[in-house]
Specification:
The complex is a heterodimer of chains A (about 425) and B (about 280). Chain A has 17 helices and five strands. Chain A is mainly alpha-helical. Chain A has a domain at about 330-430. A four-stranded mixed sheet of chain A has the order 2-1-3-4, with helices on one face. In chain A, strand 1, helix 1 and strand 2 (about 35-40) form a beta-alpha-beta unit. The longest helix of chain A has 28 residues, at about 85-115. Chain A is globular, with a radius of gyration of 32 Å. Chain B is an alpha+beta fold and about 280 residues long. Helices cover about 50% and strands about 5% of the residues of chain B. Chain B has helices spanning about 1-10, 15-20, 55-70, 110-115, 130-150, 155-165, 170-190, 195-215, 230-240, 255-260, 265-275; strands at about 45, 75, 90, 105, 195. Chain B has a four-stranded mixed sheet with strand order 2-1-3-4, covered by helices on one side. In chain B, helix 3 links the parallel strand 1 (about 45) and strand 2 (about 75). In chain B, helix 6 (about 155-165) crosses helix 7. Classes of the chains: A mainly alpha (about 425), B alpha+beta (about 280). At the A-B interface, helix 3, helix 5, helix 8, strand 5 and helix 17 of A face helix 2, helix 5, helix 6, helix 7 and strand 5 of B. Strand 5 of chain A pairs parallel with strand 5 of chain B. Chain A: This is Mitochondrial outer membrane transport complex Sam37/metaxin N-terminal domain-containing protein. Chain A: It is found in: Mitochondrion outer membrane. Chain A: Keywords: Membrane, Mitochondrion, Mitochondrion outer membrane, Protein transport, Transmembrane, Transmembrane helix, Transport.
């Protein structure tokens, strides 16, 4: 049976919108013969995690696990890392984790946190690959996750939607500028505002540099250097990162992350600029990898979901996309119901599947907790709930049919301090004030 | 006058409630003394845990690093709420006068130690430094979080160390235990949609393998003359994992088993323990 690789759909001319998915596509495309695998653009949230490799009944999720699975399954023939020595293998592991920890926040900032990029590029890319109902849940969820991941960096200023500068005709000077523009006279407004001559004219150079966009820029440059410098040093003058003259799984992963930095045409292209201007060697390397791993041809959304029913008009796509039938009404309804249940405030805690997969075969030494057990807490809660319900029930009953001389209050009033102590004196306060008839 | 009674009708407190509240306060405690301006004669490092070696990896890392730098300090048990940055450890430097010194959060501890140490430690400029550090801070830390807070160890390690000392009230303890679990879970979910215990453990094992072969036959990582921050970071995890008596012992020993077989890392840990914590 052919291998099936399920990924998030294509975007930005790349096979997927997700870095690990791109890496997995690149890996399979360069190891497995074309007729032995199929690429499926998927968005089923019940599958939990992409990239997902389906081989018959066995499922493997995540790039590293897929690489490991392919190595075990085929005893080396689908393995890019077979020639690596121990040191290279260690470097591969270390840099893979380094990429995950430093490149993820950069992509988060560039594609999700930055309000301008998110609204201009990311959302529309998701619209193309997700059915309408998932557009309300998946992109905002991923954006929230990106915000959480990058929260400690203090770059939330990127998140602010900057007011459109064309409309800020408040104040005399701007009014003058806009009238000049309206009259067709080239003003010194928008067109020249960023020129070197006008730099810091209003606030001085210090004021200019401390304005949020520049302050953020310094931080962003530092962050991208943190990733790109070690990577560039590892690359050196070699063709591929680990220097065997052929790509390894690390190259695939690097391509996954760097492609998402370079190829989306975002309005705030600081990340792309950082790579292109300061690390041209890395830029060349990514271009080379693209050709080697997925081919230079732009991947179109229509490759995965053909819009036309005339196959002869379609070019053969460079990747072995498996054409999927339009999802039926039953499937759509079920997915919508699941999305609603999973995102509804209280219901989600009941219906959302657990996120922890415990060890399957584990012998655990027994250890007893000194905290009250869940059973105890539930019993206590049950009793409290019963007591409260009983009290209110009694109160309601009493209100409907009041009896003369309620026994509780009488009892408290008659024996103010003998049996009840402090509470008795409290109750006596009430008793004194109540008209006892 | 009419309006006054009108208002009184709106705002009047029921007589029984007024009599009840007139009984307060029930007890008046004596006033606390003002804190006396105290002179810090030595550097004080605020960490988790009473014993000389903290049971929290990030605290232990800085304890080790300060020892490596030859800076004397006394460790005081504290909690996250005491820290200006919200996380332990932090350090109150010693001062000569009575003016209180500014606390140093853990993010600036390295620079502070370099400026205040007689023998400042040079960090390795190896290109692989950052990458291997990410193995520790990413892969091993995540496995640690799972192992200590979410696996069976949560009752045998996290509970006696982090939950029980905070309060004697069972309900407060329950809430804190739940918060702790949720915090660990959210931290793990940051980078993955699901928490797969097998995957976390196998990644940690691979990471330890890499570190083992990175150390090789050298005394310290990256072939340095003196141990540095990287050694401290490794030691923070290896020492705690090899500690039999952490909390009330390891219930889920998977993560611990992976490190026990790594002879060089075990030797590295023992070396640090002998050379720098012999008095402890």
């Amino acid at each position: 049976m052919a291998l099936e690789l399920h990924v998030w759909g294509p975007a930005f001319g790349l096979p997927s919108i997700d870095a690990e998915c791109i890496a997995a596509v690149g890996y399979l495309n360069s190891t497995v013969p074309r007729e032995d695998w199929r690429l499926v653009a998927n968005h089923d949230t019940a599958l939990r995690k992409f990239p997902l490799l389906m081989d018959g009944s066995s499922r493997t999720a995540g790039f590293a696990s897929i690489v490991l699975y392919l190595r075990k399954r085929t005893l080396g023939s689908y393995d890019l890392d077979i020639d690596l020595n121990q040191k290279q293998h260690n470097n591969k592991l270390a840099f893979a984790s380094f990429l995950e920890s430093t490149a993820t926040p950069l992509i988060d900032l560039s594609l999700y946190v930055s309000a301008e990029n998110y609204s201009a590029i990311t959302t529309s890319s998701y619209t193309a690959i997700l059915p309408w109902y998932l557009n309300y849940t998946i992109p905002p969820t991923r954006r929230d996750q990106a915000r959480i991941r990058t929260g400690h960096l203090g770059l939330s200023s990127l998140d602010v939607q900057l007011p459109d500068n064309k409309d800020d005709s408040i104040g005399l000077g701007n009014d003058f500028e806009s009238r000049k523009r309206a009259a067709g006279i080239p003003g010194e407004g928008r067109t020249t505002q960023n020129s070197i001559l006008n730099m810091g004219r209003a606030k001085g150079i210090g004021g200019l540099l401390s304005s949020p966009i520049y302050a953020a820029r310094f931080k962003l440059d530092a962050l991208s250097n943190e990733l790109l410098e070690p990577l560039s040093e590892l690359l050196g003058n070699k063709e591929y990162l680990l220097g065997n003259g052929k790509p390894s799984s690390l190259d695939c992963l690097t391509f996954g992350y760097l492609a998402l930095m370079l190829y989306p045409s975002v309005p705030q292209a600081w990340l792309k600029e950082a790579v292109v201007t300061r690390f041209p060697r890395i830029h060349d390397y990514v271009t080379r990898l693209r050709e080697r791993l997925i081919g230079n041809e732009e991947v179109k959304v229509s490759d995965a979901w053909p819009t036309t029913n005339l196959p002869q008009q379609r070019q053969q796509p460079s990747l072995p996309w498996k054409i999927q039938a339009q999802s039926g009404l039953v499937y759509t309804t079920r997915s919508i119901t699941r999305e609603i249940l999973n995102n509804f405030p209280v219901l989600s805690t009941i219906f959302r599947p657990g996120t922890i997969i415990q060890d399957r075969s584990m012998v655990v030494r027994g250890s007893s907790s000194s905290l009250p057990s869940a059973l105890m807490v539930n019993i206590l809660m049950g009793f409290s709930a019963a007591a409260i319900t009983a009290f209110f029930g009694f109160a309601a009953h009493h209100k409907r049919s009041p009896r003369e001389g309620d026994w509780l209050i009488l009892w408290a009033a008659q024996r103010p301090s003998t049996g009840l102590g402090e509470a008795g004196s409290f109750l006596s306060v009430f008793a004194n004030e109540l008209p006892i008839r | 006058m009419a309006s006054n009674t009108e208002r009184n009708r709106w705002y009047s407190i029921p007589a029984p409630v007024r009599t009840l509240f007139n009984k307060f306060p029930l007890v008046t405690y004596p006033e606390n003394d003002l804190p006396l301006p105290r002179r810090n004669r030595e550097n004080v490092l605020y960490v988790f845990g009473e014993s000389p070696l903290s049971y929290n990896p990030s605290c232990l890392k800085w304890q080790a690093y300060l020892r490596f730098s030859g800076i004397n300090y006394s460790a005081i048990a504290s909690s996250n709420h005491a820290s200006p940055s919200g996380a332990l450890p932090f350090l109150l430097p010693s001062t000569a006068d009575t003016k209180p010194s500014k606390p140093v959060p853990s993010s600036r501890l390295q620079r502070w130690a370099m400026n205040n140490s007689a023998a400042a430690i040079e960090e390795s400029s190896d290109t692989r430094y950052e990458a291997y550090l990410s193995l520790l801070e990413h892969k091993i830390r995540r496995a640690w979080l799972y192992s200590v807070y979410l696996s069976a160890n949560s009752t045998s390690i996290a509970e006696p160390l982090y939950v029980l000392p905070t309060s004697r009230n069972s309900f407060v303890r329950l809430t804190i235990a739940r918060d702790l679990r949720c915090a660990a879970e959210n931290e793990l979910l940051k980078f993955s949609a699901i928490i797969d215990a097998d995957l976390l453990h196998s990644e940690a094992e691979e990471a330890f393998n890499s570190l083992e072969s990175l150390l090789g036959e050298d005394t310290w990582f990256f072939d340095n003359q003196m141990p540095g921050l990287f050694d401290a970071s490794v030691f923070a995890y290896t020492h705690l994992l090899l500690d039999d008596n952490l909390g009330s012992g390891w219930a889920d020993t998977r993560l611990r088993d992976t490190i026990v077989q790594k002879k060089r890392l075990v030797a590295h840990r023992n070396r640090i323990l002998d050379q720098f914590f012999a008095s402890a």
